[in-house]
Design goal:
The structure holds two protein chains of two kinds. Chain A is mainly α. Chain A contains nine helices and no strands. Chain A has one domain. Classes of the chains: A mainly alpha, B mainly alpha.
Chain lengths: 195, 212
């Protein structure tokens, strides 16, 4: 049983952790969620339909992420700021970073800012490459619902103001993207959340 | 005329994801592309959608380190070994019970009664005086403790305790806030409580052992 359990962990750990990480944007929280998911797997090992293990794990991960967001909501704004500033300071330290990297950093933040289930579906489908059937099983939705939510989620992602602004700046040939991000990082640096 | 163009733009932009996913029919694709080629706003929106979609698809899968899963492996190790030990102990107990059942009833009850009588006589002749009682009290407590917990049980309890301490250290290193709410602590506490509970049950009835 333990060998099978470890095999299951090895098989699904990346997917679970990625999902949690893109949903929460804080590595420690994603690690907590990953641990929680696999502890639940151990606790429910006998009762699970092992043919649908992947979907079961994603459902548990999805619920764990939602619980985590609820628990952390009062601190979430600070954590968001921290994650953002962290990335922006990282960008400042590596001035040679391409605009594309900045775009992806903003994209990650934009994904995280999506509401559920848009966020979960975009992550599962576009980042993790899960099939509609798998997502359906994980979120207990019909295939058409998944598709509608996916398209809406993508549209919401594109409506992210900062992301669109970055795209416009890059495509208009404006070279001040890094400068603006560095400026934002400098302004936010003294928020006192993490010393 | 302008309204017509606006509504066309609206519908074309609604179809962007369908186009990117390859869900549109050939006819729809033709209409879509011909509009995008003629309309600068839709062309820009389409390009933006492509860029975003490509960037999302390029986002990597991230793996957690082995350190994250190490406590889980250890937890399952402990639980698994406890379960095995319980099963083993249970099988020994059931074999003993089978053996006792194999003895004819007359001898079984007669022997038990005789044994009880012998013990009662031995105890009545060896009742310690108050001074002897004081002298031997530590030895009695020690022997009592030895009877209550086997070395394996004590080692198991210590293992559980160490595991719990390690967990708590890790969690407190990560965050000093809301440590009590962390979900990792609860299963470990359950595990420890269960082992203590089991130790108590074992004391009263060794046949009631079972997995956590």
């Amino acid at each position: 049983m333990r060998a099978l359990y470890q095999q299951a962990i090895d098989r699904h750990r990346q997917r679970i952790f990625s999902f949690a990480h893109y949903s929460l944007r804080v590595r420690e929280d994603a690690e907590d969620v990953t641990q929680e998911v696999f502890i639940k797997l151990w606790q429910h090992w006998q009762k699970i339909d092992h043919n649908k293990l992947g979907a079961w794990l994603m459902r548990v991960a999805h619920n764990a992420v939602i619980d985590h967001v609820r628990k952390q909501r009062p601190q979430q704004a600070n954590l968001d700021q921290f994650a953002e500033v962290d990335e922006q300071v990282g960008a400042r330290n590596e001035e040679a970073k391409l605009d594309q990297d900045l775009f992806k950093q903003q994209l990650r933040l934009a994904i995280k800012s999506l509401d559920d289930p848009f966020r979960s579906i975009v992550i599962m489908r576009d980042i993790q490459g899960m099939s509609y059937g798998e997502i359906q099983g994980s979120l207990d939705m019909s295939a058409s619902q998944v598709k509608v939510y996916l398209h809406r989620g993508r549209r919401k992602l594109r409506e992210n103001i900062e992301l669109r602004q970055l795209f416009n700046e890059q495509n208009d040939g404006v070279s001040g993207i890094k400068q603006s991000v560095v400026q934002a990082a400098t302004n936010d640096k003294g928020n006192g959340h993490v010393q | 005329m302008s309204n017509n163009s606006d509504s066309q733009c609206y519908f074309v932009q609604l179809q962007i994801d369908g186009y990117l996913d390859g869900d549109l029919s050939e006819a729809q694709q033709t209409v879509f592309m011909s509009h995008v080629q003629d309309c600068a706003a839709c062309a820009k929106e389409f390009h933006y959608a492509q860029v975003v979609q490509d960037a999302v698809l390029e986002l990597p899968q991230i793996d957690c380190g082995d350190m994250v899963l190490e406590p889980i492996y250890r937890l399952t190790d402990d639980t698994g070994s406890q379960r095995l030990a319980a099963e083993k102990q249970h099988s020994i107990a059931s074999r003993l019970a089978d053996l006792l059942n194999a003895i004819p009833g007359f001898y079984r009850y007669g022997l038990s009664a005789a044994l009880v009588a012998v013990i009662a006589v031995a105890v009545s002749f060896n009742v310690p005086t108050p001074s002897e009682d004081n002298l031997n009290s530590e030895q009695l407590i020690a022997s009592e403790n030895e009877q209550q917990y086997s070395p394996e049980e004590i080692a198991q309890a210590l293992n559980d305790l160490n595991l719990a301490i390690e967990y708590l250290n890790q969690v407190s290193q990560r965050t000093e806030v809301m440590i009590a709410d962390r979900f990792l602590v609860t299963p470990i506490q359950d595990s420890i409580n269960a082992s203590f509970q089991r130790a108590r049950i074992r004391e009263s009835d060794p046949l009631q052992n079972g997995p956590i």
